[in-house]
Amino acid sequence: MIKNSIPWPNGARCAVSFTLDMDAESLLYLSYPDKAHQMVATASQLRYGPNVAVPRILDTYKHYGIKQTFFVPGWCAERYPYALEAMIKEGHEVSGHGWLHEHPNELADDEERFWFEHSIASVQKITGEKPAGWRAPLYNFSHRSTELLIEAGIQYDASLMGDDVPYLIESRNGSLLELPSHWGMDDWPAFMHNSEFGFQMPIQAPSVAWQNWWDEFEAAWQYGGLWVPVWHPFLSGRLARWHQTHLMIGKMMEKGGVWFAPMRDIAKHVQRCIVDGSWSPRTERYGILDDLPEVPNIGKRPTDSTRAHHVSQPRAA
Asked: Based on the number of CB atoms within 10 Å of its own CB, is 25 exposed (0-12), middle (13-18) or buried (19 or more)?
């Protein structure tokens, strides 16, 4: 079912990278900058991530001897340096995730550049390592993001949903490796319930949510895919939920044929495969208007010329 599967290391059937976005209260201060300090219950929910969940998550990774990836906003890096220091000490990857979880596709050109550069610098200041990758907050990758990431020397992006395996995003100034996931691998729909953010979906039992993600894993294992959950410590790091993850990792290892790796290592492997010719990526272009068919204003009655362009012109083979 995957026509362009990657030869994973040591004959592995699939690659697995648990990615945790440690957003903490950045979400609260972005939405309510003037009164976030008054919203104590929500702050306590979000602080659970760096203060309780992250140590628990690191213990599980240490138990199984695996290295994984955290994406952290720059504001959170500076507010919770001890959490990042613990991640780095255990050999895990910490990469960029905006500054205050701002949405790049809602910013002006200079604003996106400023906050992107500021966020990367903040993470590097705490970890001592330049982030290898980046994930746009709330997947809100902009039409400028590809060029900014390439210019900054970022090795990969993890914001988009365009395939089951890595692919390349083409830009005017080069190409960027995409390590995709999708909303079905996100824990927000399963677990997030908070009136302050206007998101009050029914909370799933951990066993139900993890069965969904296990189904995704089985398919990735069967067809050579990339399995990348997009989780948050304050959600998936809760006791019963992380208990399920601890068991899931053991079950994956018992199944065998799984390459557990941080995203930076997956990116390096994919790039090596491209260079040595053992795998050729599919490419996409986003945010570029060149070569698009004319986009009519649907609210207006089409003119004869517009009608002719969209109805009569044969489509190229």
From this structure: buried
Per-residue CA distances from 191 to 25, 149, 171, 230, 309 (Å)? 17, 31, 36, 12, 47
Q: What is the pLDDT of residue 59?
A: 98
CATH no., domain 9-285: 3.20.20.370
Q: Are 146 and 169 in contact (CB under 8 A)?
A: yes
The token pair at 178 is 């995409």
What is the Cα–Cα distance from 55 to 206, expressed in whole angstroms? Answer: 20
CB 122 within 8 A of CB 230: no
pLDDT in tens, 87-113: 999 999 999 999 999 999 999 999 999
Share of the chain above pLDDT 70, in %: 93
| Neighbouring residues of 275: CB distance < 8 A, sequence distance ≥ 6 | none
Positions of E strands within 59-119: 69-72, 93-96
Strand residue runs (E) in the chain = 14-16, 19-21, 69-72, 93-96, 133-134, 156-157, 167-171, 174-178, 193-194, 199-200, 226-227, 230-231, 258-260, 283-285
Tokens 């599919």 -> residue = 282
Q: What's the pLDDT tens digit per position in 39-48?
A: 999 999 999 9
The domain locations on the chain are: 9-285
Under 8 Å between Cβ of 297 and 306: no
pLDDT band at 156 (very low <50, low <70, confident <90, very high): very high
CA separation for the pair 67, 25 (Å, rounded)? 25
Q: Tokens for 117? A: 């550069």
- The whole-number pLDDT of residue 314 equals 44
Cβ–Cβ contacts within 10 Å for residue 255, how many? 12
Q: Cα–Cα distance between 293 and 266 in angstroms, integer?
A: 36
Residue 8, token pair as written in the block = 């994973």
- Distance from CA of residue 224 to its chain's centroid? 20
At 16, the amino acid letter reads: V
